[in-house]
Every structure is written in structure tokens, then in C-alpha cells.
Automatic annotation (TrEMBL):
<dbReference type="InterPro" id="IPR036412">
    <property type="entry name" value="HAD-like_sf"/>
</dbReference>
<keyword id="KW-0472">Membrane</keyword>
<keyword id="KW-1133">Transmembrane helix</keyword>
<dbReference type="Pfam" id="PF00702">
    <property type="entry name" value="Hydrolase"/>
</dbReference>
<protein>
    <recommendedName>
        <fullName>P-type Zn(2+) transporter</fullName>
        <ecNumber>7.2.2.12</ecNumber>
    </recommendedName>
</protein>
<dbReference type="GO" id="GO:0016463">
    <property type="term" value="F:P-type zinc transporter activity"/>
</dbReference>
<feature type="transmembrane region" description="Helical">
    <location>
        <begin position="133"/>
        <end position="152"/>
    </location>
</feature>
<keyword id="KW-0812">Transmembrane</keyword>
<dbReference type="GO" id="GO:0016887">
    <property type="term" value="F:ATP hydrolysis activity"/>
</dbReference>
<dbReference type="InterPro" id="IPR001757">
    <property type="entry name" value="P_typ_ATPase"/>
</dbReference>
<dbReference type="GO" id="GO:0005524">
    <property type="term" value="F:ATP binding"/>
</dbReference>
<dbReference type="InterPro" id="IPR023214">
    <property type="entry name" value="HAD_sf"/>
</dbReference>
<dbReference type="GO" id="GO:0016020">
    <property type="term" value="C:membrane"/>
</dbReference>
<comment type="similarity">
    <text>Belongs to the cation transport ATPase (P-type) (TC 3.A.3) family. Type IB subfamily.</text>
</comment>
<dbReference type="InterPro" id="IPR051014">
    <property type="entry name" value="Cation_Transport_ATPase_IB"/>
</dbReference>
<dbReference type="GO" id="GO:0015086">
    <property type="term" value="F:cadmium ion transmembrane transporter activity"/>
</dbReference>
């Protein structure tokens, strides 16, 4: 018995490499012969099979020397490794509740190819958040300097700060409109 390769896995790997993810490994509890057969031709950077949950955790910790580690899993035996990873992603529909609890992100569809749009949304949302923080702090500091130099009364400073807060919140709300490239292109076409 073996888990089949999830639909869209090959396209996902190509897409992840396009997103700048350099190393992609498969860590599985399946027998080596089964894992090799299922992943043949995928172009993985490594295959670790016959792993117990604690060996998966050790692999995640070892891979940290190469940079941040994202672990994707769906079973109870993946939960410890998901928790140990910098970013743990659980496959939510068929996956075990333990995996969902241990993960940072839960994909609510059982399609691993949705990982790439998730990464794109996360990166764009992070960029918007950083813009909002920098703009908010920058404008607030300018307001404080203006107030310290006597150009703003306390009431004007308070009103200005509220305007800055509202502007930053409105900017952050742009994250609600983020649509991954493939989804946005399909909607436009």
C-alpha cells in the first residue's frame, strides 16, 4: 500500500522553483521502492523514505542549515515535523486533525497545487503589511517632529494621527483583493 502522488505535483514543483524555492525533498514513511516509483521523473533534490515521525523532525531540523524549511504533510505522523518547520502546511480536507493543529497553514482543499498560489498570496500580503508599517511609522514620526517644532497643536497632532491610522488601515485592506496570477488571469479572460 502506498499513497498516490497528488494531482498537480509536477506542475507544483516547477512553480515552486519559479518562486525561488531551491531545495525540494520528499520525506515519507513509505518504503523506498514505492517512494522511488511514485516520484520518478519529478526532479526532486532528495528522497528520504521509511521515515518515522521523529526522523522527519530530524530531517527538518537538519535542512535548516540550507535555509528556512517549509514542510507539507497530511498525516498524524507528519504533525511533529510540521511543528518543527519554519512554516508547516497541512493538507486539511483528508489530513489528520493533529497535522492541522501543528501546522502554521492549512490548505482547505486536498490539492497540493494550491500551495503555490498560497505562497504568492502570503508574499504579497507581507509586502503590503510592511508598506503599511513603514508608512505609518514614517508619517507618525514626521507628525511628532512637526508637533515638537510647534507646527501642530496637540489637537491637530491627534487628528493627524487618526488620519494616518485610517490611511494605513485602508492600505492594509488591499490584501483582501489579492488574487494569485493564475486566478486573476482566468477571471480576466
Amino acid at each position: 500500500m502506498a499513497d498516490p502522488l497528488r494531482e498537480g505535483s509536477s506542475d507544483l514543483l516547477d512553480g515552486l522553483r519559479g518562486e525561488g524555492i531551491a531545495r525540494i525533498l520528499l520525506a515519507t514513511g513509505d518504503r523506498h521502492a514505492v517512494a522511488e516509483r511514485v516520484t520518478q521523473g519529478l526532479g526532486l533534490d532528495g528522497l528520504r523514505s521509511d521515515l518515522t515521525p521523529d526522523q522527519k523532525v530530524l530531517l527538518v531540523l537538519t535542512e535548516r542549515k540550507n535555509g528556512p524549511v517549509m514542510m507539507v504533510g497530511d498525516g498524524v505522523n507528519d504533525a511533529p515535523a510540521l511543528a518543527a518547520a519554519d512554516v508547516g502546511v497541512a493538507m486539511g480536507v483528508r489530513g489528520a486533525a493533529a497535522s492541522a493543529e501543528a501546522a502554521d497553514v492549512v490548505l482547505l482543499v486536498d490539492r497540493v497545487d494550491q500551495l503555490r498560489p498560497g505562497i504568492e498570496i502570503a508574499r504579497r500580503a507581507k509586502r503590503i503589511a510592511i508598506e503599511s508599517v513603514v508608512a505609518g511609522i514614517g508619517l507618525s514620526v514626521l507628525g511628532m517632529i512637526a508637533a515638537a517644532l510647534g507646527y501642530l497643536t496637540p489637537v491637530e497632532g491627534a487628528i493627524l494621527q487618526e488620519v494616518i491610522d485610517v490611511a494605513v488601515i485602508l492600505n492594509a485592506l488591499r490584501a483582501l483583493r489579492i488574487a494569485p496570477r493564475g486566478v486573476a488571469e482566468a477571471a480576466a479572460g
